Amino acid sequence: MSLALGTLLGVMLAGLLLRMPIGFSMLASGVAYLLMKGQDLGLVAEQVCNGLYNNYVLLAVPLFVFAANLMNAGTVSERIFDFCRILVGRMRGGLAQVDILVSVVFSGMSGSAIADAAGPGLVTIRQMLKKPEYTPGFAGAIVVASATLGPIIPPSIPMVIYALVSGASVGALFLGGVVPGLSMALLMMLVVHVIATRRNMPREDPIPLREWPAIFYRGALPLSMPLVLLGGIYSGAFTPTEAAAVAALHALVLAGVVYRALSWRALGGVILESTRSSAVITLILAGSFILNYAFTSEGVPQAMAQWVGGMQLTQLQFLLLVNVLFLALGCFLDVSVLLLVFVPMLLPAAKLLGVDLVHFGVLVVLNMMIGLIHPPFGMLLFVTKALTGIPIGDMMREGWPFLLMLLALLLAITVFPQIVLWLPHTMGYVTG
Prior knowledge:
By secondary structure, this protein is an all-alpha fold. 77% of the residues lie in helices and 0% in strands.
């Protein structure tokens, strides 16, 4: 390791320990690297500007963030909740089952785990806490677990970022997440059924048949968004990036015009929050471009590929090693950092071993979603605690069956790539 690279890592680690915003820490470490190398500091601006302005796909990120915030500010979450109650509310643990189904639907609109937990998840928790059968820990655990569906079922913000760094097709990645995402939902519903049966949780009161038409009518337009987005992408009507703009417009029209649930003041708040969230992501992106320049200059990705090649790992052994790495790092680092800093270092090794990039992308994103709910620093645990006040320890005690289920699914996807690749191949995407 060169002195310049060691300085970069030292400055970045110091920034993290001092709780500096991760984007600033990455930029500072990049500047320190250039100073140690005696290179022009103008390279920082060059790398950042080239990275941000030459990647059209990045426009999808703030647009999907804006769409999710619009839906959470309006009445979209409540309408989807009422619709899903008709479908699964009569099952054991009905409200928990409803939350999972709501997450499936909302995933087809937002692509964000945090937005899912903060929107539909909060609606469901409030309903569950009204009933003594649902402990606060269980209510928080099911919301945290189901929120991980957001970036797996298309559209997905992490998959858009992965496509940026890997060159994989966004459309193929979106399709690759469908079967794993639906499998996650079904397995979560099975876990809830087992827990609800053991605890003898009652079924929800039936919704009178005369109320069904009104509920279906209220939920029809929000439920149309996933169909519009995915139908438009795979029919060729618009690109995945343009789909993000369609999602934002769809959400704005629904919340502001059709339902009149969004005041001008609320819209201003949505714009402000979306700008803040997008700025955080963009700052991390900016830092990643200079870090990737440093790593490439030092030959880190190539050294990683040579190391993996020297170990003579099989594809399966490499992917299992990647799982362990990302499950550990996911407890401490932001998803964007993992995608933008660590994934580029592993891509040459993945390509050397012939790993399909779509399979690798879905696998990496699923790892990161597990990291969001994995103690001790799972981000979704902290978000849910901040919104509801439910202690993290209570959610962790109730959430271990869901964590084990997700780990089992991760292993299955690792061993059987066709779980991910079947649909992209069927739809005509060449991913190998």
